[in-house]
From TrEMBL:
Protein name: SAC3/GANP/THP3 conserved domain-containing protein
Organism domain of life: Eukaryota
InterPro entries hit by this protein: SAC3/GANP/THP3, SAC3/GANP/THP3_conserved
Region annotated Disordered, chain positions: 1-60
Gene3D superfamilies in alphabetical order: 1.25.40.990
GO CC field: cytoplasm; transcription export complex 2
GO terms under biological process: mRNA export from nucleus
Length: 404
């Protein structure tokens, strides 16, 4: 096992209190004990990310005492204002909730000078609150947009409470891993929503994914033993690489080449990061065959959630290359093309038509793609969702075990 170098993903403008975290605080019973020096951000970078907490560098960390998922004062006020999410309403009443239903909201601007300990939830309450929230994730009672909007805000509030208390331990790391998974799977689920405002929701979700992932990396480093890496760290690092597939994408403010230089060999040699590096290389050089076949053979569900929007982009590249590079008198069999693109033949017909290409049928009844068509184009509204043959179990949008 190898210790991570000191330069990975250090958020800018970090307060002095945030940059002083003790590795010996790993299993500390007091969540806000004053730590010793460290090169990593204790609270996971939430304050450094301007996520709603003023700089408290001259103040001690708060020790939360609120025993409920939502402080009673806030719940009473929100009942009076009828500001209750559908999941918080008692018997459907928009003006009535209960301690078992109400969950503390996220406040965009908040100062530790103004916050009382009774309004901040301690770690055990935050753990229970997160588990309670994630039980809604696969709910079919409401559209996913409604579920996501509720969880998006309330998990952000959990991060805010953790940040104000400067809690650093393994339990917090597990909580952040769960919240990263929530945002990753939401990328997949939001693409399947019919609502018109999901594009903005997807953008905000990806933004918070980047922040939460940055926080998790800093927690790994702040809480690390001298020569250790965490069990799930390699897979979460692979998410960081895959988030760079888009052109000029730097979701966390640092270039990928800089980041690679600071990742230790232990993680660089892991199958998760090797997979993400191969995918990145195949995508950038336009090797559509290796890109798609590698996903089919090696991708985990969470990795696929990030990769999914790029799959149709690569499929379109493949169709364009075959259309332009084929012989005009020798149409390309759709059966062969469907295997190459990991699609069913019926989906492939729809895909080709979306690209402005016509399909023909020969005397034997086989569907063919005539090449050298000049009508190829990318659909203005983007591609619809198509099943990735071999990964059908990923299409349902529920968290499956990682593929071996």
């Amino acid at each position: 096992m190898e210790r991570r170098g000191p330069g990975r993903l250090q958020p800018r403008n970090v307060s002095s209190r945030e940059s002083t975290v003790s590795r010996t605080n790993r299993f500390a019973s007091k969540p806000n004990s004053t730590p010793k020096s460290s090169s990593r951000v204790a609270s996971g970078g939430e304050k450094a990310q301007n996520d709603g907490v003023d700089d408290p560098s001259d103040l001690p960390a708060i020790v939360g005492t609120c025993p409920l998922m939502c402080p009673e004062r806030e719940r009473t006020q929100r009942e009076r204002l009828r500001d209750l999410a559908v999941f918080e309403r008692l018997n459907g009443n928009p003006a009535q909730s209960s301690p078992d239903l109400a969950v503390k909201k996220f406040f965009r601007t908040i100062s530790t000078k103004q916050v009382e300990a009774s309004d901040v939830r301690p770690l055990p309450v935050l753990e229970d609150t997160l588990n309670y929230l994630l039980n809604f994730f696969d709910s079919r009672e409401y559209p996913f947009e409604v579920v996501h909007d509720f969880l998006f805000d309330r998990t952000r509030s959990i991060r805010q409470d953790l940040s104000m208390q400067n809690i650093v331990n393994n339990k917090v790391i597990r909580m952040y891993e769960k919240m990263v998974k929530f945002h990753v799977i939401s990328l997949h689920k939001l693409r399947r929503c019919s609502s018109q405002n999901t594009s903005s929701m997807n953008y905000l979700n990806k933004e918070q994914l980047a922040k939460t992932l940055t926080s998790l990396f800093n927690l790994y480093d702040a809480n690390r033993d001298s020569n250790s890496t965490y069990e799930n760290e390699a897979e979460f690092c692979s998410f960081y690489v895959l988030l760079h597939l888009g052109s000029n994408s730097q979701p966390m403010g640092e270039s990928l080449s800089w980041w690679f230089r600071n990742v230790p060999s232990t993680l660089m040699k892991s199958k998760e990061i090797c997979f993400s590096r191969k995918i990145l290389r195949f995508f950038r050089i336009g090797n559509y065959n290796c890109f798609l076949s590698t996903i089919a053979a090696e991708a985990s569900y969470l990795q696929y959630c990030i990769l999914e929007p790029y799959v149709n982009e690569v499929r379109a590249l493949a169709v364009s290359c075959i259309n332009n590079g084929g012989y005009k008198l020798h149409p390309y069999p759709l059966a062969n093309l469907s295997k190459l693109l990991m699609m069913t033949e019926s989906d492939l017909e729809s895909f080709c038509k979306a690209c402005g290409l016509e399909i023909c049928t020969n005397e034997e009844g086989y569907n063919l793609l005539p090449t050298k068509q000049t009508t190829f184009c990318h659909p203005k509204d983007g591609f619809q969702s198509y099943i990735f043959v071999g990964l059908e179990q990923f299409e349902s949008g529920t968290l499956k075990p990682k593929r071996k």
